[in-house]
Amino acid sequence: MNRRNFLALLGTAGVAGAVAAPGMPAAKAHVFPGFENSYGVLHDVTRCIGCRQCEEACNAVNHLPKPKEAFDDPDVLGVRRRTSAYQWTVVNKYTIDDKPFFRKLQCFHCNEPACASACFAKCFTKNPDGSVTYNGDQCVGCRYCMIACPFYIPGFQYDEPFDPLVQKCTFCKPRLDKGLLPGCVEACPMDALTFGRRGDLIRLARKRIEAQPDRYTDYIYGEWDAGGTAWLVLAPASKATAGKSDVGPYGATEVMHQIGLDTHLGSQPMGELTYGALGTVPLIVAFWPILFGGLYGISKSREARNAMRNKIMRAAERQDMAAAMDDAVRRIERLQGPEAADVARQALEDAVEERRQAALDASRLVGKEDR
Fold it and tell me: GO cellular component terms (predicted)?
């Protein structure tokens, strides 16, 4: 069943079932293996000059809307930005020991992606080439993937109330299939981005660290973090890490945090945690933006739409979200520690608030159409 057929079915018969059902598993207990010969990209932060040519290339290759700020506008670097549904990679400016550095942010393409494990519609695929891709044809808009992602990468098309999709970096898979480099890698003038087999990139990173121990922190971000990722980051050394060998994730915490990277994700694949942590999230909370967005198609009667909207909201309020979130956070705390649990709780709370706001926005949209 594709996305449109699902929404049509939901509009005619699914409302009653959604209201009656207390919840459903987010995904089955499946784990995605990391492919041995998959590709990756090594991002050497010491080489990045913040030119944003990678952003411009990503925008052009993927036919994304042009941002408000020009790609050659340096003032953008002073604002800490995140990826979105229409901006799949961004470059941010950071400071280490009063020196400016720049780091590119995009989907990390995890070896065992949490987004794929969380998605009960199976919209995400980990491919042998290392990419994690999304198929919107069967997406129901629940946004479990956004909660599950440890890097907060997937973006949602909030401005598309009737057919929104989740969007993120595709690792330029169409280009990989043609034997071409990812657009951002091809555009980088400083060789800050190196494409290759993941294993070869790890060996290359180690050689750079060994050759210049005062230049690099002896830690390759993404080698083991979150179970390993296709995108790897080589960070500059700080006064605390310069010349020190094998500092490990906690020894590298300060310098990694200074360039916006979390070293407390652990080495266990996030996909192994996601299906258990999100399985208790009530179905109605996931679907209420879809239901609100589809109210106009259910009935052209203002009274019928208002009655249905109130019914859905009352059903949602009966869901014990607090208990579900506590269960999820306790599981993560047991497996990953208190800091990871704090991050997870904040992510869950933010997601619930976003869904609540999306429901209100959709409700206002229906009200405007009535007038």
Answer: periplasmic space
Q: Where are the alpha helices (DSSP H) in the chain?
A: 3-9, 15-20, 53-61, 114-118, 144-148, 173-177, 183-187, 198-211, 248-251, 253-258, 271-277, 283-293, 295-298, 302-318, 321-336, 338-370
> How far is 43 from 192, CA to CA, in rounded Å?
6
Contact 268, 150 (CB under 8 A): no
Do 19 and 35 belong together in one domain? no
pLDDT classification of 350: cutoffs 50, 70, 90: confident
How far apart (Å, rounded) are the C-alpha atoms in residues 182 and 184? 6
DSSP reduced 3-state for 41: strand
Mean pLDDT of 191-197: 98
Residue tagged 């990209």 (tokens): 41
103 φ, ψ (degrees, to nearest 5): -135, 135
Q: Give the pLDDT score at 176.
A: 97
Across the strands, what pairs with 134? 124
Of 232, 267, 302, which closes a domain? 267
Q: Could you count the other beta carbons within 10 Å of the beta carbon of residue 370?
A: 10
Q: How many Cβ atoms sit within 10 Å of the Cβ of residue 264? A: 18
Cα 365 to Cα 161, 307, 368: the distances in Å are: 9, 16, 5
Pairing of strands 193-197, 216-221: unpaired
Tell me: do 172 and 248 sit in the same domain.
Answer: yes
Number of structural domains in the chain: 2
Q: What is the pTM of this model?
A: 0.70
